Automatic annotation (TrEMBL):
Protein name: Transcriptional regulator MntR
Keyword terms, alphabetized: Activator, Cytoplasm, DNA-binding, Manganese, Repressor, Transcription, Transcription regulation
Stated family: Belongs to the DtxR/MntR family.
Record's subunit section: Homodimer.
Record lineage: Bacteria, Pseudomonadati, Pseudomonadota, Alphaproteobacteria, Acetobacterales
SUPFAM superfamilies reported in the protein's UniProt record: Iron-dependent repressor protein, dimerization domain, Winged helix' DNA-binding domain
Gene3D superfamilies linked: Iron dependent repressor, metal binding and dimerisation domain, Winged helix-like DNA-binding domain superfamily/Winged helix DNA-binding domain
Location in or out of the cell: Cytoplasm
Domain HTH dtxR-type: 28-88
């Protein structure tokens, strides 16, 4: 836990906004993970099946079944008997937005010299909590050559 000098706390509105953003991000992170994974499976030419989702997320099939009911009720997926899971237009948009955030965060971390494996793992969590202003700053840093500044190998192109 970081320590602050007495009297150096942020003003209540700023602090409250930070906590609110974190609460909202926690609410959507799991949904975004499922939708993004379903999109990845479909775009990889595979069917998005409950068993595959459970295996890749490291959860039980009943856990996946419960979440799929929620995603279907929220209008993000459709399920067809014996055909797997498909994203709706809203699900596709959510997946694309999440994938774009993930790519920016991962590219930025790689530009800082973080290994490919750790950057991918860390980006998976960070992508849900980073705000638009921070994402834009990450992209500006990538375009400005932060990888070269840090002395790391060149970062891949940013996604936008």
């Amino acid at each position: 836990m970081r320590r602050r000098k007495p009297g150096s706390m942020p003003d209540p509105r700023t602090q409250s906004a930070g906590f609110e953003q974190a609460r909202q991000s926690r609410k959507t992170a799991l949904v975004e993970d499922y939708v993004e994974l379903i999109a990845d499976l479909l775009h990889d030419g595979q069917e998005a099946r409950q068993v595959d989702i459970a295996q890749r997320l490291g959860v039980s099939q009943p856990t996946v079944a419960k979440m799929l009911c929620r995603l279907e009720a929220d209008g993000l997926v459709t399920r067809r008997p014996y055909r797997g899971i498909f994203l709706t237009e809203a699900g596709e948009k959510m997946a694309a937005d999440s994938q774009a955030r993930h790519h920016i965060v991962e590219t930025f971390l790689r530009a800082l010299g973080i290994s490919e494996k750790n950057a991918s793992i860390d980006a998976e969590g960070m992508e849900h909590y980073v705000g638009e202003e921070t994402l834009a700053a990450f992209e500006r840093a990538i375009r400005a050559g932060v990888a070269e500044f840090m002395g790391t190998r060149a970062a891949p192109e940013s996604h936008k």
